[in-house]
Amino acid sequence: MQGATSMGRMGLPTGEMLSRVPPTSRHTGLGSAFIPNPRNHFSWCQALLDKVTSVSPQAEIDGLRNIWIIKPAAKSRGQDIVCMNRVEDILEVVAADNLPTKDKWVVQKYIETPLLIYDTKFDIRQWFLVTDRNPLTIWFYKESYPWFSTQHFSLDSLDSAIHLCNSSIQKHLREDKGLSPLLPRHNMWASAQFQEYLQTRGRRALWGSVVCPSMKCANVYALRVAQGHMEPHRNSFELYGADFILG
Length: 247
Description:
With 247 residues, the protein is α+β, with helices and mostly antiparallel strands. The chain contains eight helices and ten strands. It has helices at residues 14-19, 42-55, 59-62, 87-95, 160-163, 167-170, 191-200, 205-226; strands at residues 26-27, 33-34, 68-72, 82-84, 105-109, 116-117, 120-133, 136-140, 145-152, 238-244. Strands 6, 7, 8, 9 and 10 form a five-stranded antiparallel beta sheet that branches. A three-stranded antiparallel beta sheet has the order 4-3-5, with helices on one face. A two-stranded antiparallel sheet has the order 1-2. A hairpin with a 2-residue loop joins strand 7 and strand 8. The longest helix is centred in the C-terminal third of the chain and has 22 residues, at 205-226.
């Protein structure tokens, strides 16, 4: 593309990235770097972080493990969803797939730093109803429910038991030893219970001011993108379930 700038790792211009390395840093030969008077480099480090954020707004939740989540299209209940951190493995899974060619895979960056409750991952299942595609008409259920993994959260293992909270998967698993007794016995809360939890952390207002409005916006944006591909069916509706992770 004419006028494009060569980009290195993390989306930074390669030449600029190399030219700004602090000249006083040196390698110790022990697998680490030593920078004398690190406070003198604070402004340089902050500028670098600001640049990363400008090209990757989600850098804070992307993490450092390069983990991606791979989902087959047109399936439900968490079927065949996996987490991987090597592109070769991802391509191998997709190439070995026996789905018809019209079906697709969704590959997206995994949120490596999700909000945890008692060291356990959860996501929020939110149902919504679409009664018309033109004009797009969406009914957002007032109640939702967080559901939990049965395992302690860790990025050291990419086992689906840790990273997928869908009850269709978790109901077959034995709970990890040492899970907090404050977690729900059946791995699910009502939205009111989640709001009570937020209140114990002094954050209850975030449900009405941030979480719920953001889920509504995400649903609307997703459906607007797909609106032109939705098949019209008279006198019918579509019920969808969306899962949200908080960072």
